[in-house]
Amino acid sequence: QPPKIWPKREEGRGGGCNFHMACSIRIRSMVIRAVVVLMLLVMCLGVHGADFFKEKNFDKHGNPGKGNANKKDAHPIKTVCVIPAFMDKLKDGMQLFYAYQAEEASQWFEDKCYNSTQGELSEDCGCFFWAFRAHSTVNKTDLARIALDSALEIAPFDPKLLSIKGEMLAEKDGEFLKAAETFKEAAKYEDKNGEDYEKNIMRHYYNSATAYVQLARAEDAIEMYQKALETERGQEKWSIYNSMGLLLYDLERNDEAIEAFEQALEIETDHTAVLRNLAGVYLKLGNVTAAIPLLRISASREPDSFEAWYYLGSAYQRNEQHAFAALALENATKLAPLHTLAHKMAGESMAYAEDYRGAVRHFQAAHRLLKNHSLYGGCDVLSGLGSVYMEVHEYRKAYDAFFGALQRCDCGLAPNPEECEQDPVSLLDLGLAELALGRVRDANSSLSASLEVSTAQGGGLAEAAVGTAQAALRLCMW
């Protein structure tokens, strides 16, 4: 063979050897020096280096151990727990599970992979996963926890396991903060190339938001909802926009709440709950005109919904459309006959609409419900009932109602008597009923007491009415 021709270095470009032999000698010299320096360095480290490696003992999988090489090696860290290719050895237990023999399946997995130190499949993450499913099915909660935690020791970054852990923290333990953080971890490790990536990551963020809602951490929840909406699947979910709108409403970010509810309605047209929520924002802002059409659609689409009729009746009442309010609230009380406030509001609207018989019926229903719940409060119900009786000239019944109102709102029965103030209007109503019954002396006493209470409270709420009543009283006495 022809001799190899080595390229020559040009002068002025770093120098170096011009011949192969000279270069080889220099290289060998440099290698020898490097070896000597390395040996000296190792000798200097001495015992300290040995102790370092001893303490940082690594297992056969490359995971740091606990400083004892005789202990069982740590599990290899996996990112996916259940690998289909490795499931053949679990088929007996899985067949029991799918054959609805959950108790037998639970026992099979308990025998095979009870915990991280015993069981022939104790290093198989899939075994722990299926053990968790089997134990959960037969309500062996403690064993299910052991199985799930053991699976997470082997595959701590598996998003499916993290999601299950988050659900357990939230639903079983009430550890909502840990649950929220765990769902965020699940989203972090979700496989972007996975077939269900968009669906899964949206669900992780949504669950995290739900956990934050339980903690009343609205800002954190909104952040998670927004992340969910950034996913392709999240953009299709009206429920996310609706949930975010409710939080924005609570934070009094009303314009953003309206926008969120409107986006929900773009996805789910005329959804009754969203319509009511949007109407609620308008009512809060005093825009009753905008709220009523939304609530009418809600009631027509969902005629069996108490909320639909109740909120519609409330809106009509605020707009002083009492005849329409009475009809809506009548429907509401039929759907929820034990709802005290609905009966009270129905009585008020019917009284304004001059349906006195209906008003009496609803005020009496509200009074019966109040008596079953407490001894104190609800005097406005009896006052309303008394006012209706006054309109139809049943003065004795009116007197009984007004007297009952004074009794139910006696400050001696109040939960915090020191914070209680007597209502001068109740005394005025009683005085007028007494005057109508011809009980002049009693009327004078009640009207004078009303004026004294009003003056002592620094208000003039009843003064004009008291003056008129006392003038009528003097006329009667004359």
Automatic annotation (TrEMBL):
Family: Belongs to the APC3/CDC27 family.
Protein name: UDP-N-acetylglucosamine--peptide N-acetylglucosaminyltransferase SPINDLY
Membrane-crossing segments per the record: 30-50
Gene3D superfamilies per record: Tetratricopeptide repeat domain
Keyword Ligase: no
Pfam families recorded: TPR_19, TPR_8
Keyword flag Transmembrane: yes
InterPro entries the record matches: TPR-like_helical_dom_sf, TPR_rpt
Coiled-coil segments: none
Keywords recorded for this protein, A-Z: Membrane, TPR repeat, Transmembrane, Transmembrane helix
TPR repeat intervals: 202-235, 238-271, 306-339
